[in-house]
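Sequence, please.
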């Protein structure tokens, strides 16, 4: 069984155009993310992009990169094409590390891969963090999840789940689970994803992972070993990450 850390990278971004190529302490962001992936020391690291500029920067730095279609509706579709271009087998594992997360802890990447390996019946593995801040729970941009006692995810939602109907648990510490968008997939699960139509639950919540669940594919999740810093979505995020690298405390 092969494990590949895949880093999808698009040039287009409404808030930060050319985001993968923005400088962070002397290196483009995409190369900073590749550095993180290489420190994991597990399997191959490959950037998947639809942009020749990103391709050339990664290739010139000596890293593996594949060109994918510019017409993919989601990053998951891009992962599947890249995995197919690499001729991965159905049981091979693809770890999805976003191209705008140069601060992702190495321990968490290892953890999500090992979680999928330890659950051969699962199609996907992911992580979460416990939260008690009601503002986070109520924020639709923070995806919540519930799971059974075996760690299998029952549902993901932008709504506050579980819903505290009687408001008796407002002070309960760390009752809710906020999903962290770090995934490990079996190649066979990615192949299924691109063949299935967009699922009704996925359309309502705008959460791709619900397509797997609506088609009966098991997702397992565990609490992240280390806290996950925010990715780079805004100019303020970029400034914070740059400062972190300049101070050498990342």
């Amino acid at each position: 069984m092969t494990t590949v850390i895949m880093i999808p990278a698009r040039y287009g971004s409404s808030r930060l155009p050319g985001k993968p190529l923005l400088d962070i302490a002397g290196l483009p962001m995409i190369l900073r993310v590749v550095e993180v992936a290489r420190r994991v020391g597990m399997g191959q690291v490959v950037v998947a992009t639809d942009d020749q500029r990103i391709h050339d920067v990664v290739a010139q730095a000596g890293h593996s990169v594949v060109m994918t279609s510019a017409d993919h509706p989601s990053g998951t579709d891009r992962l599947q094409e890249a995995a197919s271009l690499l001729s991965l087998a159905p049981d091979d594992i693809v770890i999805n590390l976003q191209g705008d997360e140069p601060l992702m802890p190495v321990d968490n990447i290892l953890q999500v891969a090992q979680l999928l390996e330890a659950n051969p019946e699962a199609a996907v593995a992911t992580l979460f963090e416990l939260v008690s801040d009601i503002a986070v729970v109520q924020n639709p941009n923070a995806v919540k999840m519930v799971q059974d006692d075996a760690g299998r995810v029952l549902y993901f939602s932008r709504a506050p789940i579980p819903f505290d109907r009687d408001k008796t648990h407002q002070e309960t510490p760390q009752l809710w689970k906020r999903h962290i968008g770090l995934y490990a997939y079996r190649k066979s699960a990615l192949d299924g994803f691109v063949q299935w139509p967009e699922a009704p639950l996925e359309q309502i919540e705008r959460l791709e992972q619900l397509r797997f669940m609506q088609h009966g594919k098991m997702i397992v999740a565990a609490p992240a070993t280390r806290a996950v810093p925010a990715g780079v979505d805004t100019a303020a995020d970029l400034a914070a990450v740059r400062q972190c690298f300049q101070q050498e405390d990342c």
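The radius of gyration is 18 Å.
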